[in-house]
Amino acid sequence: MAPTPAPLALKPGTAWVDAWRRARGAAPEAFRDDRVLNLWAGQWHADGSALPATSPVDGTPIAGPPRLDAPTATGAVRASLDQHRAWRHLPLPERRARVAATLDALAEHRELIALLLVWEIGKPWRLAQADVDRAIDGVRWYVDHIDTMLEGRSPLPGPVSNIASWNYPMSVLVHAMLVQALAGNAVIAKTPTDGGVACLTLAAALAVREGIPITLVSGSGGELSEALVRSPEIGCVSFVGGRDTGARIATAVADLGKRHILEQEGLNTWGIWNFSDWDTLAAVVPKLFDYGKQRCTAYPRFVVQRTLFDQFLAAYLPAVRSVTIGHPLAVEHPQHPLPALDFGPLINAAKAKELDDQVAEAIDRGAVPLHRATLADGHFLAGQDTSAYLPPVTLLNPPPPSPLFHAEPFGPVDTIVLVDTEAELLAAMNASNGALVATLSTDDPATYDRLAPHIRAFKVGRGKPRSRGDREELFGGFGASWHGAFVGGELLVRAVTEGPAGERAPGNFPAYQLIP
């Protein structure tokens, strides 16, 4: 008879109170006993109304965002312009030295930043560390290559305003902020409402110590959008988030003729056509559930040739059943390493309930449930709050009225659509009017070469997932998934600097689409 596993417990030294104490010790200027501060005009301010917040991991109370009102945010933007006017004239070697020093400080506090990510947005330990590492390593690449990227270019006339989603505070938001500063711009960022405020506050504090001109404020989008999007002082708006908010920002920046980078969601699809390498596909499936598919390059939709459906299921179902979920900091023994889970909670209990309700409604309207895991086999503390957790679900043929048919679920819900012709395959893969990534699995290179150009995604992989990419790799989107300048590699620097008169930036604009 197998021995009964020991009950799980929080690994010593990883509690929220431990992370909070360490953050206050690392940057006492940016934290108070019970709240984080806003950063503007080069100073930390105990202003704004601090909202209560809880961790999605187990409901533990954590620090909430100190939300500013619109007049204060407007003052912060004006102060950032003053910083920008001084910073843009600082010689590049000095800017590079200060950004490099910031990266060294971030590396020194790598594990603390990752622990804050676990508590604030529920990332498993492995993925939290990777988020920090990608930010540091990615910006180091720019530090090494910035000279040639800035030849013949100058900073924008005003600071860059960043409004980003909560899922990648370091590798997307902090990465972008430091590259924007390296290129000669002051930087403004709004902390995501749903999580990451302590992590971003610590990162900003380390950067400000090195003289980087960062403004970090909290508040609702509706309250702060006038200041962060429409203010004449703003030189560029950079947004990462959903289509509804993105569409409103796109309208505002178009009206103002303002420089912009708007990364929005799309339904990323994986097509299966005349394919037989099922072992390779099966090995990829669990990795596609990293962080519960809460990322812009997740693949929530498989479009499968009907005659291959039985073989697809034989490969897919055992793979999806191997996906692990649970408390990211729970261990059997104090000396054990933190668990290597595929994902932990969703960003909050409301999101988990929303998706669970959408699944139930889709099944009620005719979708076929092919796989529904339960929390019973999850990696949890005894009696912990699991309201933000949703185990993997797979549905066949979601009904057209369901949001799961046409929109990105941003959670661990896969949908499968069956097709009979190549035309149906392409139509199903292009269901959301543009996507960031897509993949087509087919044995025949000629078939891939013929079909891939008709898939409306910025990056299309052959049998492999595509990602946002790092360093020199470009990134963008087609259709409604992207508005404005493309980024990645030298394009990120071009997007936040001015070049020769009449230059057209590669990107997806109302008047033109220019592919690099």
Low-pLDDT regions = none
Tally of extended strands? 25
Helix % is: 25-40%
Bin the strand percentage. Answer: 15-25%
What oligomeric state do these chains adopt?
single chain
Our Rg estimate from Cα atoms comes to: 23 Å
Q: How are the strands ordered across the major sheet?
A: 11-10-9-12-13-22-24-25
Our count of helices gives 16
Give the structural class.
Answer: alpha/beta
User: Termini separation (Å)?
Assistant: 62 Å
Integer tally of domains: 2
Gross geometry? globular
Please name the fourth-level CATH homologous superfamily of the largest domain: Aldehyde Dehydrogenase, Chain A, domain 1
The CATH architecture name of the largest domain reads 3-Layer(aba) Sandwich
Structural features, described:
There is one protein chain. This protein has 516 residues and is an alpha/beta fold. It folds into 2 domains: 21-265 and 481-498 and 505-514, Aldehyde Dehydrogenase, Chain A, domain 1 (3-Layer(aba) Sandwich), CATH 3.40.605; 269-462, Aldehyde Dehydrogenase, Chain A, domain 2. The protein is 37% helix and 18% strand. The protein contains 16 helices and 25 strands. The chain has an 8-stranded mixed beta sheet, with helices on both faces. A hairpin with a 4-residue loop joins strand 24 (507-508) and strand 25. Helix 3 runs antiparallel to helix 6 (169-182) and helix 10 runs parallel beside helix 11. The longest helix has 25 residues, at 125-149. It starts with 8 loop residues before the first strand and ends with a strand. The model has no long low-confidence stretch (mean pLDDT 94).
